[in-house]
Design goal:
The protein has 5 helices and no strands. By secondary structure, the chain is mainly alpha-helical. It has a single domain, classed as Cytochrome c oxidase, subunit III, four-helix bundle (Four Helix Bundle (Hemerythrin (Met), subunit A)), CATH 1.20.120. GO terms for molecular function: cytochrome-c oxidase activity.
């Protein structure tokens, strides 16, 4: 397909999607770097081999997967012209995103309760990596929530319909990416010691 063909709107839409994918690829490379450093550092003598991730991280994993499903349902509702169901599913996704972040911080509290802080005399290199990876991911979830708020605002302004939903599609792509990324990170942190 020739990327130079089509209307100006089609060209702009392709350019916006391409920019999002460039951003996603750069984020994938960043997280691959951190997880690679995690693996390399696991040979250190002070590495915690028997640490178990807090249950709050498992709960947050389930929550973010459900939030991706609710975003899919919002998109389907919009495609079918059901504005009220679109609104409902967008708000469900937003609430689930907030619950995800709450559970992440609950997980951090459980780690602190075990005596491990991010830095200082009670820190450990294993925990510092877990904090770093999870906090950077949370920041991306916050960006996803901001995108979702913009989508909700534009939805209320009736800027989307079954044939014009680029903003919603871009936000959904990013949301699904941070969902898949967390599932990968959770499984990585759960199984790689």
């Amino acid at each position: 397909m020739d990327l130079t063909q089509g209307t100006q709107e089609e060209k702009n839409n392709r350019a916006k999607k391409m920019m999002l994918w460039f951003g996603i690829i750069s984020l994938i490379m960043s997280f691959m770097g951190w997880t690679s450093a995690f693996i390399v550092s696991s040979s250190r003598p002070d590495w915690l081999k028997d640490f178990v991730l807090p249950n709050a991280f498992l709960i947050s994993t389930v929550v973010i997967v459900i939030s991706s499903i609710s975003f899919i349902l919002a998109k389907k509702a919009l495609k079918s012209g059901n504005r009220s169901m679109t609104t409902l599913w967008l708000f469900v996704t937003l609430i689930l995103g907030v619950i995800f972040i709450f559970n992440q911080f609950s997980g951090f509290q459980q780690i602190i309760d075990l005596g491990y802080n991010f830095t200082g005399p009670t820190s450990n290199v294993t925990m510092s990596y877990i904090y770093l990876i999870a906090i950077v991911h949370i920041l991306h979830v916050v960006v996803g929530l901001i995108c979702l708020l913009v989508v909700i605002y534009n939805h209320f302004k009736q800027k989307y319909d079954a044939t014009k939903m680029l903003g919603l599609e871009l936000a959904a792509t990013f949301w699904h990416f941070i969902d898949i990324l967390w599932v990968y990170l959770f499984l990585f942190l759960y199984f790689i010691r």
